[in-house]
Amino acid sequence: MTDPENEPENEPENEPENEPENEPENEPENEPPQAGNVDGPVFKAPVSGSQFAWNNDTVSQIQQNNGAVAPGFEALATLVTDLLRELPRAGLPGQDREDAESAAGEVLATIARPDGPQRGALRRALAVLKGVLAPVATGVVAGTAAGTQEWAQKAIEGLTGAL
Question: What is the 8-class DSSP label of residue 112?
Answer without folding.
Answer: T
